[in-house]
Design goal:
It contains 15 helices and eleven strands. With 535 residues, the chain is α+β, with helices and mostly antiparallel strands. The strands form three sheets. A five-stranded mixed beta barrel has the order 4-5-9-7-6. Strands 1-2 form a two-stranded antiparallel ribbon. Strands 10-11 form a two-stranded antiparallel ribbon. Helix 1 runs antiparallel to helix 8, helix 3 (48-73) runs antiparallel to helix 4 and helix 5 (120-131) crosses helix 8 (291-328). The model has no long low-confidence stretch (mean pLDDT 96). The protein binds flavin-adenine dinucleotide.
Length: 535
C-alpha cells in the first residue's frame, strides 16, 4: 500500500472525473467484452460467424447512439405523460413520449428482430446488448412483441390476426408494430384465473368490457389481453388492436380509454396505465378455454426469459463500470479497488455477471433445442426423455426469473456502493436507473412467491415420473457429483412436504428453506454454464 500523499490546501481544486468518463464514453459493449464474445461463441455453435458479424455491426449503435438516447430520455422533465383530450374535446388518450424514445424505438424495431429471416441467436445477442441500456421504454415492448409474435405464429388463422403477425414480424410499409400484454386486474395480477374482464360475442365479433389495472407499453399497436367469455369461468386469450384500421391517424382508440398512468419507482420511461375497455374489438387466440395455459406457456415464457437476459445485461454493465471506477478512484492515497475489502467484492460482481450471462445463454440454447415452446400439462403426451427435458426448461425459466432478477438488484446495489455517494446520483451514472428497473423486473411476469410455489407444485406433480433428485441431476449434468447429490437430497426432502399453502409452522419453515434452496440450485446451474464457457 502506498502512503497517502500529503495534501496541502489550494483554492483551485483540480480534481476531475475525465479519465473515467472518457473510458466510459468509448466502451463498445460487444467489441470490448471478451467474455461476452467467448460465451456467444460457445453457445451459438454453427451460428457463431453470423452472430459475431451482426454483433460488430449493431454494437456501436447500442453502445453510443442508443445509450445516449436512453440516458437523455430518462430525465424527470421528459417523463412520458397522457393527453386524454385534444384541443377540440376529442378523446385521444395520446401517450406523449420524448423524441429520443420514439426515434430509438423506430430504429430498434426496424432491426426486424422477429422477422423469420433473423436467426434466434442474432435476436438474442441484439437483445442482450440493447438491454444494457436499461428498460428505456424498449425492453418491455420488445419482449411483449416477441410473445405476441410467438402466440400469433401458433394461432393466427384469420385475415386480421395474420395481418397483425405480418405487421409485427416484417413491418408494413417500413412500420414495425409494437406489442403489449394486459393480464393484471385490480383484484390481483398473480392469480390470472381470477380475471373478470368480460368478452362478449356480438354480431360476429368479440368485444371486451371491463378494466385492466397494469397496462405497460400503453403506446403499443396491439395487446394480448386475457378475458372471460360471458358465462364462462375459463380465461380466454385475445389480441386487440389499439386502433382499428384507419383510426390511428385520427387517434381514435379501439373501444377503450386510458384512465391514468401510474407513478412508479422504475421503468419510468415506459408508461403503465389503468384502462377501461368498453367494447374493444378483440380477436381470439387459440381455444377459448386454453387462455391461461397459452398465455403462461407461450407469452410469459418469453417475458420471463427476457427478465433473465436483461438481468445478465444490467449486471454486466454495472460490474464493468464499478470495476473501472474502482481502478480510477483513489482514497487514502490508494486506488479504491486495491483495498482488499473491495477487491473481493469486485471479483464477486464480475463473476456473478458472468455466470448470469452464461446461464441465460445456456438456458436459451436448451430452450431452442426443444423447439422454443413450452406446453401446458407438463407434456403428458410426450416420450419420457423429451418430457423430462421440457420439464427442465419450464422450471429453469421460472428459477432464472426469480433468481437472476433478485441477483441483479443486489449486484447493482453493490456496484452503486463502489461509487460511494456518486452511486445514487442519477446524473452521475445510469446505475440508479438500472437499479430501479431491476426492482420492477423482480415483480412483473410472476412475482417471486408465486413462481416459488409453482415450481414446488410442478415438482410434486411430476415426482411420480421424475424424482426431484433426478431433475437436479438432469439440469446439473456434468457438475461436481457432491453438489448434485447434496442438492438432490435436499430437493427430494423439500418436495416431499405435502403443500406450501398448508397453514402451520412446519410449512412456514419449509417455505423459508425452499426460497433459499431455489437460488442455490439455480446458481449451481449458472456455475455449470460458466464452467462450460471457460472450458
Ligand atoms: C411497473 C409494472 C408494470 C406492470 N405491467 C404490467 C403489464 O403490462 N401487464 C400486466 O398484465 N401486468 C403488469 N404488471 C403487473 C404485474 O404482473 C403484477 O404486479 C404481478 O403479477 C403481481 O400481481 P399483484 O401486483 O396484483 O400482486 P398480488 O397478486 O396481490 O400479490 C401480492 C403478493 O402476494 C404474493 N402471492 C400471491 N400469491 C401467492 C401464493 N400463492 N403464495 C405465496 N405468495 C403469493 C405475491 O408473490 C406478491 O408478493 C406490472 C407491474 C409493475 C410493477
Amino acid at each position: 500500500m502506498r502512503r497517502p500523499p500529503v495534501s496541502l490546501p489550494t483554492r483551485n481544486n483540480p480534481y476531475a472525473f475525465d479519465e473515467f468518463l472518457q473510458w466510459r464514453k468509448n466502451v463498445d459493449y460487444y467489441g470490448d467484452d471478451p467474455f461476452l464474445r467467448k460465451a456467444l461463441e460457445h453457445f451459438t455453435g454453427g451460428d457463431w460467424e453470423s452472430v459475431d458479424a451482426e454483433a460488430r455491426k449493431i454494437s456501436p449503435l447500442v453502445s453510443f447512439r442508443w445509450r445516449d438516447m436512453a440516458e437523455s430520455a430518462a430525465v424527470p422533465e421528459k417523463r412520458p405523460f397522457l393527453m386524454q383530450y385534444d384541443g377540440h374535446h376529442n378523446r385521444i388518450d395520446r401517450i406523449v413520449r420524448p423524441r429520443e424514445t420514439e426515434i430509438m424505438e423506430r430504429e430498434i424495431f426496424s432491426e426486424g428482430l422477429f422477422s423469420p429471416l433473423s436467426s434466434p441467436w442474432i435476436k438474442l445477442m441484439k437483445m442482450f446488448l440493447i438491454y444494457q441500456n436499461g428498460e428505456a421504454c424498449i425492453a418491455c415492448p420488445v419482449t411483449c412483441t416477441e410473445g405476441l409474435v410467438a402466440i400469433l405464429e401458433k394461432f393466427a388463422d384469420t385475415p386480421e390476426t395474420q395481418c397483425i403477425l405480418q405487421h409485427c414480424r416484417e413491418g408494413i410499409d417500413g412500420d414495425y408494430a409494437i406489442g403489449a400484454q394486459y393480464l393484471s386486474e385490480i383484484q390481483g395480477g398473480s392469480d390470472v384465473p381470477s380475471n373478470v374482464l368480460e368478452a362478449v360475442h356480438e354480431d360476429g365479433v368479440w368485444r371486451l368490457y371491463g378494466t385492466k389495472f397494469f397496462c405497460s407499453a400503453t403506446h403499443a399497436d396491439y395487446a394480448v389481453v386475457t378475458a372471460k367469455p360471458a358465462g364462462s369461468d375459463k380465461v380466454a386469450l385475445f389480441v386487440i388492436p389499439s386502433w382499428l384500421p384507419g383510426d390511428k391517424e385520427r387517434e381514435r382508440r379501439n373501444g377503450y380509454t386510458i384512465d391514468r398512468l401510474k407513478w412508479k419507482l422504475g421503468t419510468s420511461e415506459l408508461t403503465t396505465a389503468e384502462m377501461t375497455l368498453n367494447g374493444a374489438v378483440a380477436y381470439p387466440l387459440g381455444p377459448l378455454e386454453r387462455g391461461v395455459a397459452n398465455v403462461v406457456g407461450i407469452v410469459l415464457t418469453y417475458s420471463r426469459l427476457t427478465v433473465g437476459l436483461s438481468a445478465a445485461a444490467s449486471m454486466t454493465r454495472a460490474a464493468r463500470e464499478a470495476v473501472r471506477y474502482a481502478a480510477f478512484r483513489e482514497a487514502f492515497g490508494e486506488k479504491i479497488g486495491r483495498f482488499p475489502m473491495m477487491t473481493g467484492q469486485l471479483r464477486g460482481m464480475e463473476r456473478a455477471a458472468r455466470r448470469t450471462t452464461a446461464g441465460a445463454f445456456r438456458l436459451y440454447r436448451d430452450f431452442l433445442e426443444m423447439g422454443g415452446e413450452l406446453k401446458g400439462g407438463l407434456g403428458a403426451d410426450e416420450p419420457a426423455g423429451v418430457r423430462e427435458k421440457r420439464f427442465n426448461i419450464r422450471e429453469l425459466i421460472m428459477l432464472q426469473k426469480i433468481s437472476a432478477s433478485r441477483d441483479c438488484t443486489g449486484l447493482i446495489h453493490e456496484a452503486m456502493s463502489v461509487f460511494g455517494g456518486h452511486g445514487v446520483m442519477e446524473d452521475f451514472s445510469s446505475l440508479p436507473r438500472l437499479y430501479r428497473d431491476s426492482a420492477v423486473n423482480e415483480l412483473w411476469e410472476g412475482p417471486r412467491n408465486v413462481l416459488l410455489s409453482q415450481i414446488h407444485r410442478d415438482c410434486q406433480r411430476a415426482s411420480s415420473w421424475y424424482r426431484p433428485s433426478s431433475f437436479v441431476a438432469g439440469i446439473l449434468d456434468g457438475a461436481d457429483g457432491r453438489i448434485i447429490a447434496d442438492l438432490g437430497k435436499e430437493m427430494d426432502e423439500l418436495v416431499a412436504h405435502p403443500s406450501l399453502v398448508r397453514q402451520d409452522e412446519e410449512t412456514v419453515a419449509v417455505c423459508g428453506r425452499w426460497d433459499g434452496f431455489c437460488d442455490r440450485l439455480f446458481h449451481a446451474y449458472q456455475d455449470r454454464a460458466l464452467e462450460e464457457v471457460e472450458g
